[in-house]
Amino acid sequence: xxxxxxxxxxxxxxxDDPFNAPNEWEEEKRRGLxxxxxxxxxxxxxxxxxxxxxxxxxxxxxxxAASAAAVGNKGDGDALxxxxxxxxxxxxxxxxxxxxxxxxxxxVAEGATSVRTAEASGRFKAQAAELYERxxxxxxxxxxxxxxxxxxxxxxxxxxxxxxxxxxALTVQAHESAFHALPCIAHLITMAERPARDVKLLxxxxxxxxxxxxxxxxxxxxxxxxRAAFSTKPTERELLQAxxxxxxxxxxxxLATVVIRGxxxxxxxxxxxMLSSLCGMLSGKPELExxxxxxxxxKLGDPD
Length: 304
Hints:
The chain is an all-alpha fold. It is built from 12 helices and no strands. It starts with a helix and ends in a 7-residue tail after the last helix.
């Protein structure tokens, strides 16, 4: 009895105590009246039954808690709305043209110069990298609107298909626009750096074809960002062009490193394929001649 008397089942008004909660159906039955039925014709679970009253109280508590949480999180909601608005604003229109021969689309302002301080060059380079990320977002949105299900199918192949499907899908995406092909090139280079020889050869062949036929200028070498010429107050277009050419030069250097390393492979077939790619890169375009020529000369005494 002492234990039971120390227990509390709610306040004076009955609270949530299931033993003290009023039940009009039982009261009417006890007084000899005909109990009222609920809307579904089942006694005891109408709007005034014990179960309905308990459910109503729980719902009221949940509404109160939800209101308090909404007031407390008002600032977070504003921040999320601001973030979404900023993301939408960042996407913007596509600045760089969709083209194949990107070197014919380069725009250089009058009075452009490559002479600037290291601090200014670093600041412009960081700004250009941010602008290019926005450019890729805008390009992806544009392609999705233009091609719809076809674009989604190619994206699915590039991410979840077989090795051959992925290489083919990435090659197709890179052909859509040279200025926006850097993500596809980076993905293919990652595949070329894998230890599996079949994957490496497929990726190297695709990259060699892309660089020699579409991405490298025919009569000049690529220019690093620090040596790119643009005005003292460069436009977004100028910064994007300089960033693209600098990143393309770095990507081609990565490919050359993979190919040169592959010329020393233990498997004869892989070595011969890499030597063939090395010869094609050296004879096809003037880019990285000082890196490719010594590597090819060193293989002249190779017995294989």
